[in-house]
Amino acid sequence: MELLYEGKAKRIYKTDNPNEVICEFKDSLTAFNGEKASQEAGKGALNCAITTLIFEALEKEGIPTHLIKQIDETKQLVKKVEIIPIEVVVRNIAAGSLAKRLGLKEGEKLPFTIVEFYYKNDDLNDPLINDDHAMILNLVDNRKELDLLRDYGRKVNDFLTKFFDKVGLILVDFKIEFGKDENGNIILADEITPDSCRLWDKKTGQKLDKDLFRFNLGDIKEAYTEVLNRLKEVK
Ligand code: C5P
């Protein structure tokens, strides 16, 4: 297969169809913009399965995604999109960079859900941006597209909060990415996994996400397997 692109967590390969590509989930783990890096055998397969399960559920909710189908343990056939270089972060509870930036206590429930945009740019360390910044950087074509990203972010959050709650998990925050398909439609792309979400056990408060790796708090594979097994129960 011809490799089109390799990122920190995924490889993208060409297919015979110009509008479709293969997305492979890698076993690599990175944090703090690649400063901390490691490998975890089997993580790619876990994240591939978790994303497939969630994207299929989101499609049923009317949220368009790039997923066509999962083709093996670590690979999905997906629609080819041009990724919009904006990370859409949705937060329900204070944690991570929000807690640090605003001096909030980790675990504090926010009075309402917030949506943030970050400019996807490794050289700049993915800075927090507002709508004006996105416009002057030409990250989208118009402000309506930014409203759509926010709207999809909230819809994904509304659905996922309930989805995870059913299996005893609290969705603290998450990051999603979008792309434009061949018709210019904005659709959900990339992944939704414990690498890109904060998930806490409802009863014990135990973290079941990448913070385990970021702060050496425990075993990633065990936690991600637990998330996948619980999500399989909802299906
Ligand atoms: O680090 P921060 O608190 O801003 O992260 C918010 C959420 O977005 C977390 O769930 C984190 O895992 C996710 N995120 C991500 N990729 C990034 C930045 C944040 O998946 N580059």
From TrEMBL:
UniProt cross-references to InterPro entries, sorted A to Z: SAICAR_synt/ADE2_N, SAICAR_synt_PurC, SAICAR_synth, SAICAR_synthetase, SAICAR_synthetase_CS
Keywords annotated in UniProt: ATP-binding, Ligase, Nucleotide-binding, Purine biosynthesis
Annotated Pfam families: SAICAR_synt (PF01259)
Catalytic activity: 5-amino-1-(5-phospho-D-ribosyl)imidazole-4-carboxylate + L-aspartate + ATP = (2S)-2-[5-amino-1-(5-phospho-beta-D-ribosyl)imidazole-4-carboxamido]succinate + ADP + phosphate + 2 H(+)
The UniProt record lists the keyword ATP-binding: yes
Entry's EC annotation: 6.3.2.6
Domain called SAICAR synthetase/ADE2 N-terminal: residue spans: 3-230
A GO BP entry: cobalamin biosynthetic process
GO molecular function, one term: ATP binding
Pathway: Purine metabolism; IMP biosynthesis via de novo pathway; 5-amino-1-(5-phospho-D-ribosyl)imidazole-4-carboxamide from 5-amino-1-(5-phospho-D-ribosyl)imidazole-4-carboxylate: step 1/2
Protein family according to the UniProt entry: Belongs to the SAICAR synthetase family.
PANTHER family: MULTIFUNCTIONAL PROTEIN ADE2, SI:DKEY-6E2.2
Listed name of the protein: Phosphoribosylaminoimidazole-succinocarboxamide synthase
Organism: Caminibacter pacificus
